[in-house]
# Entry
Amino acid sequence: MAHLSFFKHIASVGLFCALAGLIGCASNTVPPDALLMKEPTTEIRQRQARRYATTDEKQVIIAAAQLLQDLGFNVENSEKDLGLLVVSKDRSAVDGGQVAGQIAVAVIFGVRMPVDKEQKIRASVVTTLSADQKAIDVRVTFQRLVWDDRGQLSKLERLDDPEMYQDFYIKLSKALFLEAQEVG
Amino acid sequence: MFANRFITFFLCMAFAPTAILCGCNSAPKVNEAEVSLKLRSIQTRSYDTTNTNNALRVAMATLQDLGFVIDNADADLGTVSATKLDNAATKMTITVRMRGKTQILVRANAQYRLLAVTDPIFYQQFFTAYSKSLFLEAHEVDTAAPGL
# Structure
């Protein structure tokens, strides 16, 4: 009887472990709609791009690099022959409101919620000669990754704030001594 | 009876983490892809142009249009890599190279989180947008042809 009971234990544990093993190995699949490429709206393109009346692409890239350095970015990569500049910066993501919320939740429910701690902001600037070959089109796109205080990635997002782009081009226009035109 | 159940439960709890870890052997997966000719064909198009620099610039513009931020590009080697962050990370690499004297081959591959993207629809969408920007018609590529 004792033997039977022992085998029962072993069988139960074995079954449980097999299930656990399967769960551990369950592979993720790509959600069918996750990769749908939505058509870009003209609005987004207009927000992200400007045209400058110059044909000196190198000068535009240098001005953009200097401006991004002013904004605290480090150059990660560049390719003059393709008109590309890639930059990034690491900053704190601590938000007073979020911390206050964390404290409130901890007091009421006794649970410690994670809060944002660090962020990496990335940007790429791409320059191209306009179709009529008389101007340079500049397009910048920003995105960020945010980690919480447990070291987990909490946000992966494109940055779409129109003011951010506007501010970038006001400064770039000043650096280039040229007026920016919208690209439609 | 209760004691027996308790022992079973305790053993399960004790072995579960080990079983979960053993269930997944973390292989390096370097050579995981037996790249099928079908997948290569899904990821490749040819275009009637010889301007690789323009093809790469259009690739960057298309990726920006589709919400990607460019990570890297090399005009000499004909590569562009970009990442899209939209709750999850999608990473894409485009390579452009000459095919004979009148055509270029454009190949795209992508990963979503930790998974290789093999869905033909994804690549079709990319090449539709890319062809529009390049003002050229994409040709399906014969995977058995030399040079691919």
